[in-house]
């Protein structure tokens, strides 16, 4: 017996499988949809607003006012989607949702000067082969510096991690550095995580060592996914993350944990 293995490996698949193989199966093998929550949709909205800001204005036009106008456009695109309707927000909750999104966009302008940024890619969909697996990731923004270096920027709309946990968060972004290296033949000189809520910027410079760490981890996770698909053995992993899992109702381990 075997189930069909996913065709690509992404940072979110690595995280999902590492956190709980059973949740990975529900999501990426059985394709059971996970309803988006307000925080996720607010993140999507802010990402789209910043995407529009860079796509539709030249450097000296990138103002807070311009970004908030882009947010309004992005919200109009989103408001009739199934995910947004599914949240069931009333007028007051919608106003709070939008106010929080506007705050995140406003915070962005205190973290970098968008007029000094020269993007060479926005929402860049990159793929690269590693061993027998195709890696895939979408980069929020790729910039070129005056000295020719390239820099990956990733917007985060949740809370910034504790300093001792920020390095593990960067593993996902090292993945993007690897994709750039393979796609452009140039490793980014910096990976920047912009935590808009707390106005914290985490920066790391990828090295040969971090790239080796990333590739060995990706290959190890992929081998574990292949084994799980071959044997149809996706073990549940009961942790504090179960609290946020969309599959609680169908997960036998979680249901048993409630009963005990
Ligand atoms: S409830 Fe917990 S154990 Fe069950 S699928 Fe979700 S994360 Fe895994």
Mind explaining what this structure looks like?
There is one protein chain. Among the domains are: 38-114; 118-217, Lambda Exonuclease, Chain A (Alpha-Beta Complex). Strands 1, 2, 3, 4, 5 and 6 form a six-stranded mixed beta sheet that branches. By secondary structure, it is of the alpha/beta class. The protein has helices spanning 11-19, 21-29, 38-56, 64-78, 82-87, 91-108, 163-184, 208-231, 252-259; strands at residues 8-9, 119-130, 133-144, 150-156, 190-195, 200-204. The protein starts with 7 loop residues before the first strand and ends with a helix. The model has no long low-confidence stretch (mean pLDDT 92). α1 (11-19) crosses α2 (21-29) and α4 (64-78) runs antiparallel to α6. The longest helix has 24 residues, at 208-231. The radius of gyration is 20 Å and the shape is globular. Iron/sulfur cluster binds at residues 20, 22-23, 236-238, 241-242, 245, 247-248, 251, 253-254.
Ligand catalogue: iron/sulfur cluster
CATH class group of the domain at 118-217: Alpha Beta
Shape, principal axes of CA atoms = globular
Number of DSSP helices?
A: 9
Name the helicity range.
40-55%
Backbone structural class: alpha/beta
CATH topology of the domain at 118-217: Lambda Exonuclease, Chain A
Q: State the CATH architecture of the domain at 118-217.
A: Alpha-Beta Complex
């Amino acid at each position: 017996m075997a189930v069909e293995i996913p065709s690509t490996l992404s940072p979110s698949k690595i995280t999902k499988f590492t956190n709980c193989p059973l949740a990975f199966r529900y999501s990426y093998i059985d394709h059971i949809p996970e309803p988006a929550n307000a925080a996720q949709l607010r993140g999507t909205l802010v990402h789209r607003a910043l995407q529009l800001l860079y796509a539709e204005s030249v450097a000296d036009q990138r103002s807070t006012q311009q970004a908030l106008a882009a947010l309004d456009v992005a919200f109009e695109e989103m408001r009739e989607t199934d995910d947004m309707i599914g949240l069931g927000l009333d007028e007051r909750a919608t106003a709070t949702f939008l106010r929080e999104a506007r705050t995140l966009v406003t915070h962005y302008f205190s973290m970098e000067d968008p007029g000094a940024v020269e993007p060479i890619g926005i929402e860049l969909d990159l793929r690269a082969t590693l061993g027998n697996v195709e890696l895939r990731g979408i980069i929020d923004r790729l910039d070129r510096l005056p000295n020719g270096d390239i820099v990956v920027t990733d917007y985060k709309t949740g809370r910034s991690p504790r300093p001792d946990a920020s390095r593990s968060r960067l593993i996902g972004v090292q993945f993007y550095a690897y994709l750039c290296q393979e796609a452009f033949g140039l490793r980014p000189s910096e990976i920047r995580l912009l935590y808009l809520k707390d106005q914290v910027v985490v920066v790391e410079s990828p090295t040969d060592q971090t790239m080796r760490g990333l590739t060995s981890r990706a290959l190890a996770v992929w081998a574990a996914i292949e084994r799980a698909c071959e044997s149809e053995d996706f073990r549940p992993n009961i942790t504090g993350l179960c609290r946020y899992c969309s599959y609680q109702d169908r997960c036998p381990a979680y249901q048993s944990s409630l009963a005990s």
